[in-house]
What we know:
Helix content is about 35%, strand content about 20%. It is an alpha/beta fold and about 325 residues long. It binds manganese (II) ion.
Amino acid sequence: MEKKKDHLESKITISECLREWEPHQKKGFDPNETRMSDIFECWTGEKGPGIGLVGIPFDSAVLGRKGAKGGPKKIRDSLRYFKTYDWSLDFWFGDKKVIDFGDIILEAESVAEAHELISDVIHKIASRDYKTITLGGDHSISYPIIKGLKEAYNPKKIGLINIDAHLDVREVINGRITSGTPFRRILDNNLVSADNFVEIGIRNFANARAYRRYVEDKNGLIFTVEDIRENGLVSIIEKTIQRITKGTDLTYISVDMDSLDQIYAPGVSAPTPDGLTPNQIMKIIHSVAVKTNLIGIDIVELNPLYDTADTTAINAANFLVQFISSTFWKYKSKK
Ligand SMILES: [Mn+2]
């Protein structure tokens, strides 16, 4: 049992975070510019407060096309295109740092066991006072992430947003945990109250009526892509923030890359047309990061095997950069 407690040390490949940058990406090439690659540092045991990144190259539970385990590497690689300057805020964060915990190498016998390992690692990272960015991997990992966060922050309450084409509240049938089950597991295990649960980006012809009823009967809130077109993103974000902060202390966002329109995200496990734009998702992330106590984000279901010109991967990296910029901006006056 003692050995099991050392997951963070034994299951993480630190070498993953020492990725090779292209020569022209290295620090010092242009003294007027800092890049995302300059602010990532490998974890060497220090405590937060800060932002911690971890990859979970895991797609054993995927329901669609396999390949999402290649996500973390591709998203990290795509960071090379981003600078540490937020034009819209006129905010430079090149003097900050993000701790890279590497990838969680899972040597699990089953999905359930893999999830236990994930919970344990997320728990440890959060307990060291880091906000967590988790790169998937299939969407099943949101359950163990929330479980780990819930344990780390107990008894504080968490409000949750899932940005997704699908509700992902399937039942676990015959013990089979899939990428379609995470939010039912989260709600049924009372990790998050449905009163504080919002799903955004839900598609027509991509979900079963039974699952809509399940979420609505529990008083969860659902916004389809059409709802955003009809009512405008600003009002949807307002209603979302109201819901996730009502009686809670903390908030969390899960981003399934298939929430994006297929044109921006060909490389996902379960592609669906008529979706969100990158800008809509960036605005949600920014607003929630600035207006609530956002403790983490996961970016899941990038499947590099089906991506074209790294389009989906670069969009995923963009969401990650948005989270980092908005979080640093919120706390800029503090340490
Ligand atoms: Mn999903």
